[in-house]
Specification:
The protein has 306 residues and is of the alpha/beta class. It is 41% helix and 21% strand. The protein is built from ten helices and twelve strands. Strands 3, 4, 5, 6, 9, 10, 11 and 12 form an eight-stranded mixed beta sheet that branches. It has a two-stranded antiparallel ribbon with strand order 1-2. A two-stranded parallel ribbon has the order 7-8. The longest helix is centred in the N-terminal third of the chain and has 28 residues.
């Protein structure tokens, strides 16, 4: 069944074999054995391409459902035998990874030495797709503060970890440099630099501007793929930007061309949490991990959500 779904996804025997780590003859034999067992022809083979037969089209989605159920069964058995062992495929957004992973990795190393942590840094949409598809087990990402913790069966469940404020980063010598207690309305007249499309931090910055009453949007003439580039653009005098407080030490403290300014309470902020598939067999394990992460992150400039 795995061989068949790999061919159905790739429509190419060599690529399917490489995807699941089989030789091409073994994969062909496995598909042929499945066809014989089911008594239907699943694929139409020509010298140039592979197509799904009508029966193959119908059975491919069913086969994926069966494989997902088998994977969940194996995960549940593994979790029941020994939690915090085996592989944990953790997805992390780029605006968290450099600043939170040292704490995460230290916790895992010290407390869960038998856990095989595998880290994947991707943008939010890709992470959520990977979670739902079963490619990833757990996500560390920004979640809307008012979002429900569970989206029901087949959805995504979130466990909040902490809230962190946004800080305005400016060129040194800017009129707002070093200021405290800034009203949000200050954002209305600033040249704000943003990350590229696809980063959740970009949308969060736009939401903050909208809440501040900025109605003309934010010009996208200059943007950056990462926070390091973004602060270099600020240092070069192209504008100002919003950074999450956990990133400040890494991104700004060693650059004398940069300064910061803080907003009045309640400052604009974002919430960071863990996301998992609703109903995952490792839910209790991930809840314990969330609890331990909150404790490990208390020294950071954040507000822990208990």
């Amino acid at each position: 069944m795995r061989a068949f779904t790999a061919v159905a996804d790739n429509l190419h025997f060599r690529e399917a074999a490489a995807e699941i780590g089989m030789s091409q003859p073994a994969l062909s034999g496995a598909v042929a054995a499945l066809e014989e067992s089911l008594g239907v022809r699943l694929l139409e083979r020509t010298t140039r391409r592979v197509l799904l037969s009508p029966a193959g089209e119908r059975l491919a989605s069913r086969a994926r459902t069966v494989l997902d159920a088998v994977e969940e069964l194996l995960e549940e058995a593994e979790a029941a035998r020994a939690p915090f062992t085996g592989a944990l495929r953790l997805g992390v957004i780029p605006t968290c990874a450099p600043y939170l992973l040292p704490t995460v990795l230290r916790l895992v190393h010290d407390r869960y030495p038998a856990l095989d942590l595998q880290v994947h840094e991707e943008q939010t949409a890709s992470l959520l797709d990977g979670l739902v598809a079963g490619r990833l087990d757990l996500l560390l990402l920004a979640v809307p503060p008012g979002a429900p913790q569970t989206a029901g069966a087949g959805g995504v469940e979130t466990i909040p970890l902490f809230d962190e404020d946004f800080v305005l980063v400016t060129p040194n010598g800017h009129e707002l440099a070093g200021r405290d207690g800034l009203p949000r309305e200050t954002l209305r007249g600033l040249d704000l630099l943003l990350l590229d499309e696809g980063h959740c931090l970009r949308q969060q910055a736009l939401d903050v501007c909208r809440e501040a009453g900025r109605t003309d949007g934010v010009p996208a003439t200059t943007s950056a793929a990462g926070l390091s580039t973004l602060v270099q653009l600020v240092a070069g005098g192209l504008g100002v930007t919003l950074l999450p407080r956990t990133s400040l030490h890494v991104e700004t403290e060693r650059n004398e061309l940069l300064a910061t300014a803080c907003f009045a309470d309640p400052a604009p902020s974002r919430r960071i949490g863990l996301a998992m598939r609703a109903g995952t067999a490792r839910r209790d394990e991930f809840a314990v991990l969330a609890k331990d992460l909150r404790e490990a992150m208390r020294p950071l400039p954040v507000r822990i959500v208990d």
